[in-house]
Amino acid sequence: MTMVRNTRQRQAVIQALRETQSHPDAAWIHGQVRSVLPSISLGTVYRTLDALVRDGVVMTIERAGQATRFDYKHGGHVHYHVVCRQCGAIHDVSAEAVTLPSAGLPAGFVVQDVRLEYHGLCADCAQPEEQL
Amino acid sequence: MTMVRNTRQRQAVIQALRETQSHPDAAWIHGQVRSVLPSISLGTVYRTLDALVRDGVVMTIERAGQATRFDYKHGGHVHYHVVCRQCGAIHDVSAEAVTLPSAGLPAGFVVQDVRLEYHGLCADCAQPEEQL
DNA sequence: ATTGTTGCAAAAATTTTGCATTAAG
DNA sequence: CTTAATGCAAAATTTTTGCAACAAT
């Protein structure tokens, strides 16, 4: 019987995620946690984050060539993401009004996570090219 | 005035994408295109795919640590993706019934691409652990 | 002619992994 | 005690880039 151990590393990673409003990447989390556990390794941060994602308490925003961003599901609140392709800024969008189709999925597929992402340019990055 | 040149490399990459029903990665596309243009480099495939994504004619499914998968928008048909976390299989889901919220986005954000992804386990990978 | 593209190869970056050691339960 | 989890460092992968040569317009 496999049991998850409540290590200090795990606690610290979870706390770091809980404390931030941003959507940090593994390196940022590592930096934060280091102030509490100076010897924690980046590998452990990655392994812990993987576990949290599998447990469904953390969401990810994944972009090729960019570090994965992690997002703690505060209170299990369902929400989606707005991602700026230029600067990488990520904003949350509450999911109140969204009704996603549950039909049309392949037979037998077990949904573990639904992601709705709007990719584009944030207000700052979209501003018309000032006269160059 | 920047103009896109219709190179043979670009044509070949587009054709490879059009011909497949799968959601190939850059390496697969490179392999395909090589049968027509033996000397095309993987770098060029990546650059071409980037351009096609920017042009909005190709969608991507991006996963950390996994090669990005590319999907040609045949006839501009809007659809979403079902992704198996285990085996990486990707299925399309038509978007007919979906009504996505256009409100709630940050002011001034310019949406270029909307992604709806269902992540989980496909029927094969989800089958209950046979008695081990 | 111009200059956007290519091929090559090296580099950058992110994420994963093997293994001996540590520590949670 | 047991064995899941850690730290370290190396490895594996994917993606990006600099630059001289090439080719589309």
From TrEMBL, chains A, B:
Q: Which Gene3D superfamilies does UniProt cross-reference here?
A: 3.30.1490.190, Winged helix-like DNA-binding domain superfamily/Winged helix DNA-binding domain
The GO biological-process annotations, alphabetized, read as: negative regulation of DNA-templated transcription; regulation of secondary metabolite biosynthetic process
Q: Any note on cofactor binding?
A: Binds 1 zinc ion per subunit.
Q: Does the keyword Zinc apply?
A: yes
Its required cofactor(s), as named, are: Zn(2+)
GO MF entry, a single one: zinc ion binding
Top-rank taxon of the source lineage equals Bacteria
UniProt keyword Transcription regulation, yes or no: yes
Which Pfam families does the entry mention?
FUR
Q: What keywords would UniProt list here?
A: DNA-binding, Metal-binding, Repressor, Transcription, Transcription regulation, Zinc
Entries under InterPro entries matching the protein: FUR (IPR002481), Fur_C (IPR043135), WH-like_DNA-bd_sf (IPR036388), WH_DNA-bd_sf (IPR036390)
Positions binding Zn(2+) in this chain are: C84, C87, C122, C125
Q: Which family does it belong to?
A: Belongs to the Fur family.
Fetch the PANTHER family from UniProt.
HYDROGEN PEROXIDE SENSITIVE REPRESSOR, ZINC UPTAKE REGULATION PROTEIN
Question: What's the protein called, per UniProt?
Answer: Transcriptional repressor
- The source organism is Deinococcus ruber
